[in-house]
Amino acid sequence: MSIVGFSIPKDRLIVLSSKAQDYLSLDDAITGIMRHLNADWGSIDESDKVMNDYNLSKKGTLISQYQSDGGVKFWVITEAGHGKTVVLLPDEYGADDVGDRAGYVLHGTSTPTTNA
């Protein structure tokens, strides 16, 4: 089965969480994002890879796991609907404010545009 990656339109967000900024280099974050966009899900288990492959076409949640050059494990998560992708550390996941967490916008705008 061949899986093709996906693209992020310019009105969609890619955010580097504030905690990820403290532990990852920008090169590590961008490398992870590029791998994620190319459907290289990193070091997740096989069942999660199958789920990501399915969710890719259904615009479901996508999760990837990578390791920085310095040995820090991090995740890249694209939310359902594919409107936002966040680079974060595993211990940040599941926090009540994960969707609203302060971070650095790497791509897109914080107020999505619509075509009339």
Description:
With 116 residues, the protein is α+β, with helices and mostly antiparallel strands. The chain has one domain (13-107). The chain is built from 3 helices and 5 strands. It has helices at 18-23, 26-37, 46-58, and strands at 13-17, 62-67, 73-78, 84-88, 103-107. The protein has a 5-stranded mixed beta sheet with strand order 2-3-4-1-5. The protein is globular, with a radius of gyration of 14 Å.
Set out the fold topology.
Layout: E1 13-17, H1 18-23, H2 26-37, H3 46-58, E2 62-67, E3 73-78, E4 84-88, E5 103-107
Parallel strand pairs: 1-4
Antiparallel strand pairs: 1-5, 2-3, 3-4
Notable traits:
116 residues; alpha+beta; 5 strands
User: Number of DSSP helices?
Assistant: 3
Mean pLDDT: 81
Order of helices and strands: EHHHEEEE
How many β strands by DSSP? 5
Structural class: alpha+beta
Task: Please bin the fraction of helical residues.
Answer: 25-40%
Poorly predicted runs of 5 or more residues: 111-116
CA-based gyration radius = 14 Å
Q: What's the end-to-end separation, in Å?
A: 37 Å
Strand content: 15-25%
Q: Largest beta sheet: what is the strand line-up?
A: 2-3-4-1-5
- The shape is globular
Quick one: biggest sheet?
Answer: 5 strands, mixed
In a nutshell, what does this entry contain?
With 116 residues, the chain is an alpha+beta fold.
